[in-house]
Amino acid sequence: MDGLSTNGTAWLVDASLYVFRGWHAYPADAFRDADGHPANATYGFVRFLLEFLERAQPTHLLLAFDIALGSSFRNLLYPPYKANRAPAPAELLRQFDACRAFAQTLGLSTHAHASYEADDLIGSAAARARAAGLDCVIVSADKDFGQLLGERDLQWDWARDARWGPRGVFERFGVWPHQLADFLGLGGDGADNIPGVPGVGAKTAARLLARHGDLETLLASLAQLAADRSLRGAAPLARRLADHAAQARLSRRLATIACDAPLPEHCLERRRGDAAALSALLQRHRFGPGTRARALTQLEACPA
């Protein structure tokens, strides 16, 4: 199966990403449900989901959806977190509900939480998977998931069909998975409105962590850093780090994926789906006979 072993693997899918991709990739006017509402995101997501199931043939998986924009525990810590993102339009929110319904009728384990983001649900599922002796494949392009990768884990960017493990994280960022949250704590993350330390970019953050290992060791070594003649601007950099130490720690906390989100005991199980409900959804969203046949085939692939 494309070089990926399915034995002893938990597949953890960043489902919201593929709903958004459908929303942006397909014109709303070309895809409508039976009531005339746009169904472009639903079409894109179902197309992705069926292709994924056919290729991966997963027995253990979890699909994580985001409903926590503005309400996650991170917003309590830092209200501006992700405040730079516009709320999803009503027509997209309606399709999120449809996408979750499709996955559920297929017997797939789908989860969302008002206080935890999809990243946290996947991190928590990864902890469960490892406790059960399973390796993990995280299906997402999101860089933040790099911090979860163990030696036997992979991240799979579906759209580019690119896969990488811990070394791939290092090759991209210059830090290892266990350093990634510290890296974002120092350099910030504009996409999530995480501030980091002013004047510290990705290259500087990676260089500091290569020398000091982690954020706390770095902050405990600022006198040594200030006297380091091999690092240009070391003294003012040390002063900035001292002045913004609390902000760096907060930024690291915001960037750290939680691995203790509440999930049901059997959150990775694939179960028998609901053929009647699936057929009704397929008809309501005007999928053609080819997609209907593929969906029903995948439903039958679920264990009893």
What does this structure look like?
The protein has 14 helices and 6 strands. The protein has 2 domains: 9-173 and 258-301, Rossmann fold (3-Layer(aba) Sandwich); 177-255, Orthogonal Bundle (DNA polymerase, domain 1). Helix 7 (180-187) packs across helix 12 (245-255) and helix 13 (275-284) packs antiparallel against helix 14 (289-301). The protein is an alpha/beta fold. It has helices at 15-25, 40-56, 73-77, 90-105, 118-131, 166-173, 180-187, 202-212, 215-219, 222-226, 234-243, 245-255, 275-284, 289-301, and strands at 9-14, 60-64, 110-111, 135-139, 154-157, 162-164. The protein has a 6-stranded mixed beta sheet.
Describe what is shown at a glance.
The protein is of the alpha/beta class.
